[in-house]
């Protein structure tokens, strides 16, 4: 007799597809938050599988800080065409121009924190009642307490001490007018699961994830890509190096790692051997011990 | 050894085991989880450095592995765990999801939540204190939530000189009271989470113990029979209608298999309409499946055009679930606002929504003594009670002990929209 058992990747996939279908069933106007990073690409891929042969019934929403890697934008535009879904861009530059947020100044200036305002404005403008994101619980300690269906009040705030209990596979998406949900179908995946799944499914990724030569400089022991958005100190000299990125965020806060890994197989071997968490290269998390928790409470995804 | 213990090929036959941990305050639960993560090389350097630094600031002599599991600022400040936290680690054999539930505040609510999806419960017992009231409570909840495997870790064996007699006495006590409960598979392991005995590595201090280490057990315990493979149940979650030229007449029923095994060609009945048809195909994306079983998410096409929508259930024609509007449940109350006798609540059961009224409260459970309190009908936060619900429409259900998916409901306060209770159908 054969064993009726799924592999861990198939079981995680089944769980994520179930969550995504639950979003379609319980909400009127959902969207997928798409950053162009591997996690949101994985979520979009799962959404494609969930509704096939119908199209994904949600638009993709990209909060564009204006400081993205050009490779990310190029990938995003190609991917949206392939899926045949609508792309909605929320622009941080617009929020700055409208005077809703003030740009940080100086060497460590980043637009990462400003994203939250643009995200909440975009949700309000399009009246999204659920935003599906690629956050994982293993990423960061505040995220370990996050629900699949994460309730946000009318200000977009997360109240970690007062979350709804989530039992079995029954998700409670009921809300009052003006409130919304963030939904995280790959909550239970680890970085390794995502990479293995990408390999198993043959999912395409932006070239940034693979080893390539680029102009970089070093700041606080982190390799940063040289770009117009970062003010360099006189002592910070650029040089050419073969690097890749483990996560993709803004150019201002995403560090590269020295790596020769140019295929999914070699990346997986590298991820397996690494001794640093993937967000270890993210300066936005290093601002304080509770940096992520504070940003999430304000509405960061 | 590597951080994630993965490589590019070995992952294709890995299984997933979900477990929950329970212990009283100071039983060493956080230390045990820290130990599992640390000894299985699942902790990264930057995480370790961060807790090393925190331990030093707090004046701890050793690196406090328990700090790895504190997520929220308030938890770190107060040194307590408030909410269920999920942890992940993997060995070449299995990937593990730990639902780490706090030991004191809102204990029942959190353990019930963590237990609802678990294959296995780890219950910690302090070897010095032996079986305490909380041990009864944890075991009762594990049994109530139908966790298939329960592992008792007799912890702090180092503080009782690794004495076999101490271990055997606790084991006997647990066996005697758990015989009154419905737990399918019970195991015992003498450990020291602090020193690492029998957690990941076999201990030289317990030569009298012949069982494997905790990690060995977690890696090898048979979980293939944890799902119900007998009663075929497919709650329809979403109807796929592409409206495209290529798939003009396509009508697929998307959902997750809740029980049994479905195959193309099977004769099925659709509830509540009762119409029968044959399964034309079962698909995931562009892949056609020969069979589908829990917990797979699939899309099913039937031979006949039947009106089917979300909330309906596709079952085998000759094996139908129970149907009733009067549902007896063990209810775990999870909200600070107490249950209102004769009150009305929204109810969710699989993919189906209904409303219900609390028709009758039979008794409240004293989960420390397992006594039924028939005169106490005040049901508040963390209470467990046997209750009859009257629903606005018939539910198609199985007993919880037979199927955890078709046998469970949640109650929602219609004013606040909060999930106020979890119910296991009797």
Describe the structure.
- The complex is a heterodimer of chains A (301) and B (426).
- By secondary structure, chain A is of the alpha/beta class.
- Chain A has 2 domains: 8-194 and 289-298, HUPs (Rossmann fold), CATH 3.40.50; 203-284, no CATH class.
- In chain A, 31% of the residues lie in helices and 16% in strands.
- Chain A has 8 helices and 10 strands.
- In chain A, the strands form 2 sheets. Chain A has a 6-stranded mixed beta sheet with strand order 3-2-1-4-6-5, sandwiched between helices. In chain A, strands 7-8-10-9 form a 4-stranded antiparallel beta barrel.
- The longest helix of chain A has 19 residues, at 8-26.
- Chain B contains 7 helices and 20 strands.
- In chain B, strands 2-3-1-4-5-6 form a 6-stranded mixed beta sheet, with helices on both faces.
- By secondary structure, chain B is an alpha+beta fold.
- Helix content of chain B is 17%, strand content 33%.
- The model of chain B is unreliable at 1-8 (pLDDT under 50).
- Chain B folds into 3 domains: 10-220, 3-Layer(aba) Sandwich (Rossmann fold); 233-316, Elongation Factor Tu (Ef-tu), domain 3 (Beta Barrel); 322-425, Beta Barrel (Elongation Factor Tu (Ef-tu), domain 3), CATH 2.40.30.
- The interface between A and B is large, with 73 and 86 residues.
- Chain A: Residues 30-255 form the Phosphoadenosine phosphosulphate reductase domain.
- Chain A: InterPro entries: PAPS_reduct_dom (IPR002500), Rossmann-like_a/b/a_fold (IPR014729), SO4_adenylTrfase_ssu (IPR011784), Sulfate_adenylyltrnsfr_sub2 (IPR050128).
- Chain A: One of its GO terms (molecular function) is sulfate adenylyltransferase (ATP) activity.
């Amino acid at each position: 007799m054969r064993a009726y058992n799924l592999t861990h990747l198939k079981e995680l996939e089944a769980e994520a597809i179930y969550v995504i279908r639950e979003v379609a069933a319980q909400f009127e106007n959902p969207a997928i938050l798409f950053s162009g990073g591997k996690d949101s690409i994985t979520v979009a891929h799962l959404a494609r599988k969930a509704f096939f042969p119908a199209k994904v019934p949600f638009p993709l929403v990209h909060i564009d800080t204006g400081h993205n890697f050009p490779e990310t934008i190029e990938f995003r535009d190609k991917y949206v065409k392939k899926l045949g879904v609508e792309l909605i861009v929320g622009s941080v530059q617009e929020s700055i121009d409208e005077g809703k947020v003030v740009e940080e100044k100086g060497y460590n200036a980043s637009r990462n924190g400003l994203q939250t305002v643009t995200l909440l404005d975009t949700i309000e403008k399009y009246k999204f009642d659920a935003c599906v994101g690629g956050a994982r619980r293993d990423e960061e300690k505040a995220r370990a307490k996050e629900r699949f269906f994460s309730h946000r009040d009318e200000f977009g705030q997360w109240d970690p001490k007062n979350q709804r209990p989530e039992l079995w596979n029954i998700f409670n998406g009921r809300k009052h007018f003006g409130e919304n949900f963030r939904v995280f179908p790959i909550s239970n995946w680890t970085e390794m699961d995502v990479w293995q799944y990408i390999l198993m499914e043959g999912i395409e990724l932006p070239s940034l994830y693979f080893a390539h030569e680029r102009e970089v400089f070093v700041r606080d022991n982190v390799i940063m890509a040289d770009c117009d958005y970062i003010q360099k100190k006189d002592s910070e000299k650029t040089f050419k190096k073969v690097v890749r990125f483990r996560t993709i965020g803004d150019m201002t806060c995403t560090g590269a790692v020295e790596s020769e890994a140019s295929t999914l197989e070699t990346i997986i071997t590298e991820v397996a051997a690494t001794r640093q968490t993937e967000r270890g290269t993210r300066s936005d998390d290093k601002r304080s011990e509770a940096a992520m928790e504070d940003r999430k409470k304000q509405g960061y995804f | 050894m590597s951080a994630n213990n993965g490589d590019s090929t070995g992952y294709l036959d890995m299984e997933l085991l979900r477990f929950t941990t329970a212990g009283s305050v100071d039983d060493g639960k956080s230390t045990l989880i820290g130990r599992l993560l640390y000894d299985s090389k699942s902790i990264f350097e930057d995480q370790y450095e961060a807790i090393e630094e925190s331990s030093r600031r707090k004046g701890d002599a050793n690196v406090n592995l328990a700090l790895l599991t504190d997520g929220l600022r308030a938890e770190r400040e107060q040194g307590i765990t408030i909410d269920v936290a999920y942890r992940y680690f993997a060995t070449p054999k299995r990937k593990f999801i730990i639902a780490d539930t706090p030991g004191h505040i809102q204990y029942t609510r959190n353990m019930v939540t963590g237990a609802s999806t678990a294959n296995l419960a780890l219950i910690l017992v302090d070897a010095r204190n032996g079986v305490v009231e909380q041990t009864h409570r944890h075991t009762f909840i594990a049994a109530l939530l139908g966790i298939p495997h329960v592992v008792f870790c007799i912890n702090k064996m180092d503080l009782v000189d690794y004495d076999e007699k101490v271990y055997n006495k606790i084991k006997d006590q647990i066996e005697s009271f758990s015989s009154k409960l419905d737990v399918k598979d019970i195991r015992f392991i003498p450990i020291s989470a602090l020193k690492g005995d029998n957690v990941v590595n076999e201990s030289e201090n317990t030569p009298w113990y012949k069982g494997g280490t905790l990690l060995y057990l977690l890696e090898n315990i048979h979980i293939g029979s944890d799902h119900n493979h007998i009663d075929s149940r497919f709650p329809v979650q979403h109807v796929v209608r592409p409206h495209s030229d290529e798939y003009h007449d396509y009508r697929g029923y998307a959902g997750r298999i809740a029980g049994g095994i479905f195959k193309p060609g099977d004769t099925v009945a659709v509830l509540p309409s009762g119409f029968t048809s044959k399964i034309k195909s079962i698909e995931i994306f562009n892949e056609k499946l020969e069979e589908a079983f829990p917990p797979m998410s699939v899309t099913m096409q039937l031979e006949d055009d039947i009106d089917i929508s979300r909330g309906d259930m596709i079952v085998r024609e000759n094996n139908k679930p129970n149907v009733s509007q009067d549902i007896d449940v063990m209810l775990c109350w999870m909200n600070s606002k107490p249950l209102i006798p004769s009150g009305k609540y929204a109810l969710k059961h699989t993919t189906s929504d209904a409303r219900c009224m609390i028709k009758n409260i039979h008794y409240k459970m004293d989960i420390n003594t397992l006594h039924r309190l028939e005169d106490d009908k005040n049901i508040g936060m963390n209470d467990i009670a046997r209750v009859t619900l009257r629903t606005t429409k018939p539910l198609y259900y199985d007993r919880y002990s037979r199927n955890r998916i078709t046998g469970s409901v949640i109650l929602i306060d219609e004013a606040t929209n909060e999930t106020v209770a979890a119910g296991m159908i009797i």
